[in-house]
Amino acid sequence: MPSTHDWINNPLDVVEGMFAASQSNPKSGWEAKVVEFFKDRLKEKDAHTWVPSLNDVPLHYLKPNSLVKFRCLIQDMFDPEFFMGAYETVDPSTNAKVLRCGRYKDVTECGVDFNSRNTVTAERQTFYCVPIPGENPWFSLILSHSYACSSQARVVPSTSYAPTRQKRTEDGQMCASQGHTEQHGNGDCKRQETEAPSSQTASASHLDLNFPLPGEKGPSCLVKVYEDWDSFKLNDTLEVFGILSVSPALSALADEKDASSSILDPTESMETAEEQRVHSPPASLVPRLHMLYARPLPHNNPLLPSATLEDNSAFLSSTLSEMASVRAELLTYLTHVLLGDALAAEYLILHLISNVYARRDVLPLGKFAMNLSGCPAAALYTQRFYQIIQQLVPSSFYLGMSLQNMNQMRLVPKKDYVANRLVSGALQLARNTFLFLDETHLEQGQLDTTGVRNVTALGNLISWQKVDYDFNYHQMEFPCNINVLIASEGRSLLPSDCQIHLQSQVSPPNMEEYLSNIQLHPQTSSQLNKFRIYLSVARQLDYSISDEMTKSVEDDFVDMRKDDPQSVSAEDLHRMLVVARLLSLSLGQTSLTRDSWLRAKHIDMLRRSRMEQHQCVNGNEP
Amino acid sequence: MSSPTSTPGRKRGRDGNPATREFCSTIPKMFLPNEVDMSSPLMYGTPSSRVEGTPRSSVRGTPARQRPDLGSVRKAPQVDLHSEPPSADGAVASEPNAGQRLVIWGTDVNVGTCKEKFQRFLQRFIDPTATEDENAGLDLNEPLYMQKLEEISVVGDPVLNVNCLQVQSFDAELYRQLICYPQEVIPTFDMAVNELFFERFPDSILEYQIQVRPYNALKTRNMRSLNPEDIDQLITISGMVIRTSQLIPEMQEAFFQCQVCAYSTRVEVDRGRIAEPAVCRHCNNTHSLALVHNRSAFSDKQMIKIQESPEDMPAGQTPHTTIVYAHNDLVDKVQPGDRINITGIYRAVPMRVSPIQSNVKSVYKTHIDAIHFRKTDEKRLHGLDEDAEQKLFTEDRVQTLKELAAKPDVYERLSSALAPSIYEHEDIKKGILLQLFGGTRKDFSQTGRGNFRAEVNILLCGDPGTSKSQLLQYVFNLVPRGQYTSGKGSSAVGLTAYVMKDPETRQLVLQTGALVLSDNGICCIDEFDKMSDSTRSVLHEVMEQQTLSIAKAGIICQLNARTAVLAAANPVESQWNPKKTTIENIQLPHTLLSRFDLIFLMLDPQDEAYDRRLAHHLVSLYYQSEEQIEEEFLDMAVLRDYIAYARTYINPRLSEEASQALIEAYVDMRKIGSGRGMVSAYPRQLESLIRLAEAHAKVRFSEKVETIDVEEAKRLHREALKQSATDPRTGFVDISILTTGMSATARKRKEEVAQALKKLIQAKGKTPAMKYQQLLDDLRGQSETAITKELFDEALRSLADEDYLTVTGKTVRLLA
């Protein structure tokens, strides 16, 4: 059996060993054994933290053909490919034939005998994966911390590239602090690429890595999947454990080839240069990862234990007991942020933990898109507000709905048939991404065709939680699960599940100063971490309604209708049920109680009365 | 094998120009094909010329044409013929062994038997039930393919399309061989056909020998299910063309000439490569041979990319694409955007990383060599036949569906399975269910009225927030060919069709809009009321004639748009005003409204029992688990299949009793109206009734429309009428609200006011001119009912129409 770290540094040895052992017994199912082996290894305590991550470690520090992990989103799915699962090589000097294994590798060894009877053709699927879009800077900070600790403790002594490893940790901190300064110094949070490009991005400039959001960085990766590829879906977030392959032989770009070769090989010249560029980019930029094992990420929060909540009851019960107190703290914090409006803060919490948990035919259940109207237009309030939320959620995106943005941005992913890939758009987001639409930026003017399409796409996203990807000849619907918050001055032009008008209790003379005083600084990260854990856990709790409560809710509804049928419609009941659910979850309760129902009714009534008031004031027709 | 050459880029379609023809006829004489055949290493793919001498004698001067589609020149993982066994991945190279009893190397195909079997198939196969459009004009009781051969002899197009399904039903073993070893079997078929053909029609002259093109192989239907086992087998998959390449001339045979002695030699392509002769055989100089391009032989080739059709895909995945190579006359047969069924041989080729390095990428490139294309959407534009849309149902499925249909409450079951998340609105769901099934299509074009509309159009109107949009979304997701648009976001162009210039080819291309795309489906239009008038006007033609006429940018055509329209509209005043008529509430032109078979109001019923059930429904929606839901309702997939089955296979006709019942119903409807001096039914309503009754019969899988169907149609129609055509002033159902936009009472009232006004003016005596305001006040003073300004204006207008008076500005002048 290989020693502790051999399976990380030389996973192919393990594979080859099993392959060789299986030769005597052709039906041994060695493929399954390999997967099983790595799964078992990774299950060991903390084992997965020993595996270097492609997200944090620059590619050139990673050893080729070693085991790495990658936290990513499936951005595109390429066509399945057939490869030589097993093949025979002939040594030209001795003429000896050796059977070799082609799994988990991109390139075969010399002297392949194409005519061998023993060649086994197998099928695998390629996914184009990008880092999870909109990951917030605090995220990698935490990860690199935890990684630095574990790597220094365990991996470094045993590997030969210890010095570089040390340097890497510094790097990580530097990067993080850089991101940090961006946070503070740069008022514009459109995440434009303002930082000095590192060596890696500079070389990447001529190749579009197809990130969904503008200004994203990080490695993208071609993940080769050997089993069960049907179980993966586009936009799934995964942590992939696989064998890194960066063989320079893969980087044969069309323009590097001399002309003679393309004449000789008519089949290869058939692909356009664009297609080649996309499907076989240089391995130094887009490494290949041969998947051994993939773990779906139910949440994207590094502070939480990676196992599911059910498996980790100790953690769950400790957080649950604290939930009410953390909620109170968070409520106070957000109330300050929302200029003293406690009701809006309450709703904001509900919004932040909302989640589409099921779909009934076309109807997504549990979505809670919120329209925060009455935002002060002055002093970039919305942007500061977004920065504060950014500190709380793992991934988020700020979309300033300026006319220019709406007319020019690519929101909906579109299939590019020339390059044969799905060109990403800003709405290709991972589940539970926080999408902040800033409508205060919208001025009067004309939307052009793209603009109209973009607004329709946003509307569809909010109402049905789906995005229709543009496949040129037809559209295809992809369900999504994105928390949309619209900040606007008046009522938003986009639909929303609930609208709340901000009523500021304080009117600070200098908004900028006021907000930066409130904002929790990353130094006080223990407080922030509490909030972060709270939000992620609350979102994942299970929830049920007892028969008793069902009855009482029904009675309530009938009573409300009896008094004034106009006041409560089915839609209101829909919303109140969602509010009640989120309210219970935010308090750490996994089933609906009479109290939470009444409270849900109460806050909804408060909200509505506020809206009516507001309507009377400015006569804004719905 | 050595075909007459074609210069690169010249197409050799069936309508080959004279120059090409001449070329073809002259070459073979000076250059005997058979010699080359014998020496060619490529001949393993075409056993014909080696095994027997007979075909040559009968096929005489007609040259054989190379079939690059069968891949004899492809650089496949194949072996050198004489040394090595073939590779194990199913790629079977073969060498025909001489002699009748032997099989082709690597297969179990015996050329002689195979040929005999196929000839027998051609001579004897009869399929009286064939309904394909290709067979139009053929006698179904005669051997089908012999008639086709006759056609070939007349038309001169040497291509014989063979339906694999028919081969299978005739001889399963032959079919299996065809699927597994297409590379060997198809040339054998070619040989068999040609023998047969020239035996029968010895005098006919063809451009080249007949080629057999099998289609409809059942091996694979879906691109996603292609796997390594399919390599080198005959497959049929469906997909959509997304890109086509330029025409690629592929060298089939290189022509070399010695620079020293002018001796010329030909070298055929061997697995994608040409071996340049190093030594001239004639003068023994080394490296003296030069390639002469314009005497080399080329064949046309085109790369086509096809993509999975959206219907075949599992949710949440992106479509796969596959490369297809089309050869010779299949080049340029398809355009991007076409939906096609393609039959061909699946290939895999290893990739070399670079010509210098010897290690290869361990990945194969895959493609399909096309043998036959069949467009699936062609018929939609021409409306020839609907069978192409037939979905294949397994026996089990049909059985389940029939069992379901036999249940007495199938109608209720299906309607409750429709959009289960939307509560109640039973009748609306039933209406939509009938719309999904549609009526029977009737053709009266011979008597001059053209096609009768079979589609049921439905309008939903009502308060905002009564889940109209949700219902539309559901229907859109349910039907395979549904389109969803919003009135606000769609223009007339987006609904109909527009002409676009293709950026690559500079060709004008007709791009179809939502209505045409939903031909044979349902077009869901949300926010119907917010649609601009010009946009709405295009619906007039679609909703009754079911066609769409286009005349723009030099393209004049009529497209089929046999689509059912499901529209949703909000009332003008955002809340439904029960005191107003439907027309007044939604302000749609009545010309359009009368084209809807059913107009439903979706209102809040506002009663306690309803509220309770609604609350229960909603709460359970939020906490019931998936499994419970599954148990309660029919699966969406079953519903979809049920509808598809009924739509394709069930064509109910009116029974005697049903016609009687319909007549009675219609007469009754007219009677109700005539009693009060108004007409409450028009022939359009009768047609609606018939459609609904037919649809209901379809729900029951019944081939006959019975009285119960009529009863239900009547009930539903009445329900819809009660809701939408009730005159708010009298409470009676009044169709004329929908047909003229004004209820009969309102018209009567207008008449009365006009008469009163006339009397008033006459009473005033001989005053030639009056003040407008004065007259209004007088009339108001006289009348006991309130007279609005609008009513007064209308009265004035009707008097003006009688030429009694004229209104200029603020004065009213008497004429006469």
TrEMBL record, chain A:
Keyword check for Cell membrane: no
Gene Ontology MF: a single term: chromatin binding
Comp. bias regions, Polar residues: 195-204
Record's subcellular location: Nucleus
Protein's UniProt keywords contain Nucleus: yes
Cellular compartments per GO CC: nucleus
Entry protein name: Mini-chromosome maintenance complex-binding protein
Native species: Sparus aurata (Gilthead sea bream)
Automatic annotation (TrEMBL), chain B:
EC number in record: 3.6.4.12
Record Pfam families: MCM, MCM_lid, MCM_N, MCM_OB, WHD_MCM4
Catalysed reactions, semicolon-separated: ATP + H2O = ADP + phosphate + H(+)
Comp. bias (Polar residues): 46-60
Entry-linked SMART domains: AAA, MCM
GO molecular function, one term: ATP binding
Ranges where the MCM C-terminal AAA(+) ATPase domain occurs: 410-618
Region ranges (Disordered): 1-95
Enzyme class: hydrolase
Localization: Nucleus
GO cellular component: MCM complex; nucleus
Function of the molecule: Acts as component of the MCM2-7 complex (MCM complex) which is the replicative helicase essential for 'once per cell cycle' DNA replication initiation and elongation in eukaryotic cells. The active ATPase sites in the MCM2-7 ring are formed through the interaction surfaces of two neighboring subunits such that a critical structure of a conserved arginine finger motif is provided in trans relative to the ATP-binding site of the Walker A box of the adjacent subunit. The six ATPase active sites, however, are likely to contribute differentially to the complex helicase activity.
Family to which this protein belongs: Belongs to the MCM family.
Cross-referenced PANTHER family: DNA REPLICATION LICENSING FACTOR MCM FAMILY MEMBER (PTHR11630), DNA REPLICATION LICENSING FACTOR MCM4 (PTHR11630:SF66)
UniProt name for this protein: DNA replication licensing factor MCM4
Taxonomic source organism: Sparus aurata
Name of the gene: MCM4
